[in-house]
Amino acid sequence: MSRWFHNGEPADHIEVDERGFQYGDGLFETIAVRNGEPRLWNYHMERLATGCERLKMSVPEQRELRRQLDDAVKDYAPSSSRCLVKLIVSSGVSQRGYGRKTPTDTEVYVGIFESTPVREEYYRDGVETILCETRLALHSVTAGIKTLNRLEQVLARSECVAHSAFEGFTLDADERVICGTMSNVFIVAEKSVTTPSLARCGVEGVMRRHTIATLKENGVAVTVRDVSRAEFLNSDEVFLSNSQFGILPVRRCGEKVWRSSELTKHIMAMMGVAGIAECVV
Questions:
Q1: Residue from 169, 162, 183 nearest 136 by CA
Q2: What average pLDDT does range 177-196 have in this prediction?
């Protein structure tokens, strides 16, 4: 069950001429609400502002966005202490055709959903994953931001469903590992932590950013660079980051099995101290 609001008012439909619907011309943020508060709010707002500037859309006023979110969450009682908010910023309705005047005024949609916790054994034992056949296109203009156009993720995620996998890893056209369908990825090799560069494609997740910052604060260096398929599969440990579940170890990817998650569990403990309660197992 979900509830939707448009510019702060309850809504159950959108205009068919809405550019977000017609062209995917907009952005979204999926925000975890814990104890009634939007987690990593500042990171979400910074990524949203970057995306608006990149797409030449007006940046919504942050205070007004927070007011709309808070009102929507309160309306979702009794589940307002823990829920999921999808914040959509669209370029709105305009004449037919791709082009629009810039900067474009934006429309804001806020959706509230139930938040289903990840099973405890996934944090303890790790998750099953696959390498997806779907490849990510190299489109640097939208690299890193979270646009409404998610067709690559839809196709890749469908592969996960077919294989009953928790997550699937996507590669680019040059066989570099980029990210998961709904997560970012970190690899551990000889006690060193690396996460793939997202300069060409992929989404810079807010939990990825929080993880990198938390590790650095705890004296653990994180390298951001290209990661090949071979390096990924030959790593000592792999873990995922996501705004909803925090950090999860990876146990298997296809035929590859990781039998160690020692450093990953240590990182999960750090994330627990840094406010991601789900990581405390």
A1: 169
A2: 97
